[in-house]
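Kindly review this record before class:
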Amino acid sequence: MHVVRVCCFFVLSLMIFEPCLAADNFYNKIGLEAGYMWGDTTYEINFPGGKSELKWPIDIYMAGIRYYLDYKDRFGIELAYFKGPERNNIEYMEDSDWMEEPIHPGVDIYSESKVDNKGDIFCLGAWVSPLSFESSSIGIRWGYRNQGFEYDAYDTIQVGYGPWEERYSGVTPGLVCKYKVDYSIWYLGVSGKITLRDMLTFDGDIIYLGHVRAEDEDYHLLRYKKSEGDCNGNGVLLSVDMSLILRKGWSIFFYSELTRIRTDGDQTQSWYGNDPASQGYDDTGAVFYGIDNKIDLDSKYLGIGIQYKF
């Protein structure tokens, strides 16, 4: 369904700009970019008897390509794809559990795990600048964005507090969990552009992420448990882009981005084996539906690249 919507959006945008493409007053711009993204993606579930939060760190070096089709700096279509290869994160995944019991206040069980992380970003958008002046413009930007992250968690150190200390404290070496999350985003926002002496250009965007669908899968390997979340919400994205024009169509650019997303929905948990954490019965085949779930994203990105206009 996501692919169909994006294709329809792309075709509609081409239909809108088709008169421009028939003219000779348009240009293409293609750029290569490398950057670093950091922050975290978190999911929190509330269930009878307590609450659990898993915070997965984002620590990715990314590289990708951007393409722009532009008509007189007034209309345009943009396409971008970035890939971050798997690497060992500096930060740890943090797992915190709160149990509904009056004996011990605060976090009852806390663990940290090393993680390997990778991710990618795809963006297809369009923009129009109805207010254009000699060296500046104000416009509207809309489109679709998809970004996903995948993790392997291993070598867990766990501490239990109060009545949970003896049973839930210890070290677990090796792979313990696999996690992936996907954010499907439709956005709309405003943009501004200022050009100084035909050499230096500043672009800024304030984007409302009006419809965000977050889907995730969490495999607790030692417990033979699979958790699947499906949430909806919204967010905001702020970006600043500075381009320095060189010569013969070439320019270098610096790009920065701040993203905040909040969603809520449900999680389903199922067991494909007998959970050793449960005593007295076999969990194999058990399924729990409708667990209250939140999936959130807070990230920052800095990039540098080179582009060619033709």
